[in-house]
Amino acid sequence: MRGTATMTAPLFTASDLAVNVLSAQSLLAAFGVLGVGVVMFAETGLLIGFFLPGDSLLFTAGLLCTGSGQNGVKLSLPPLLIAAAVGALAGAQTGYLIGRKAGGALLARSSSPRLRSGAHRAEELLERYGHAKAIVLARFVPVVRTVLNPMAGALGVPARTFTVWQVAGGLVWSLGLTLAGYALGSSIPNVDRYLLPIVAVIVLVSLAPLAAELYRSRRRGATSEEEVRG
Question: Residue ranges per domain, the chain?
């Protein structure tokens, strides 16, 4: 045996192992459909997941089912829809149970200004629009969809009411954004070149239900004040 040893190439390089958790494309390239389910669960069920890119992840994942993405990543639509829905629904229910057991203690101890702001907005939604509407609307607002679930548990929202409406909102949100990405990728060639502006539009559109509801609420409030003055 010669004195010089042969160096063995590593199975993975540092660049292969690095995953940017804030990038939908990076998460999907690394973990595929399984990553979608895990991220949906973490973002809607665990307070530590408030920073995860839920909207853009769902849309991009749907887009990649058409083979329009870069780096050769292609997902299968049926498993993706199942993973997205299961992750979103199981996460929200877990967040509610955590809030019911721990009360508001977890949010009270949080040092994140963004998380505290989201908790305040979630509480306002529950008080202003009632349980059903607030639970559905919160699905479309980043951070709020993370903290509303434990807030609902801590504030004593009935379990049956929470479950029915979180399932309704969760399915519309998770399946709707995924299918929107799939539809766009199927109809426009090389649409991934315009992914960033498209995702920005999707996020704005997802906020439309909340904005519309806030507008209607303010108009009703202004009309009531005029009636009282009259």
Answer: 23-204
User: How many C-beta atoms surround the C-beta of residue 195 within 10 A?
Assistant: 21
**Residue 227 corresponds to which amino acid?**
E
Residue 3: is it exposed, middle or buried by C-beta count within 10 angstroms (0-12/13-18/19+)? exposed
Q: Are 2 and 9 in contact (CB under 8 A)?
A: no
Q: What is the mean pLDDT of residues 100-125?
A: 74
- Take residue 208 and report the two structure tokens written for it: 């439309």
What backbone phi and psi angles, to 5 degrees, belong to 71? 60, 20
Question: Of 32, 146, 118, whose CA–CA distance to 80 is shortest?
Answer: 32
What's the full length of the chain, in residues?
230
Most confident region among 19-28, 125-134, 181-190, 208-217 by mean pLDDT: 125-134
How far is 139 from 166, CA to CA, in rounded Å? 8
Residue bearing tokens 């909102």: 169
Q: Helix or strand or coil: residue 139?
A: coil
Please, are residues 58 and 132 in contact by the beta-carbon 8 Å criterion? no
Global model pTM greater than 0.85: no
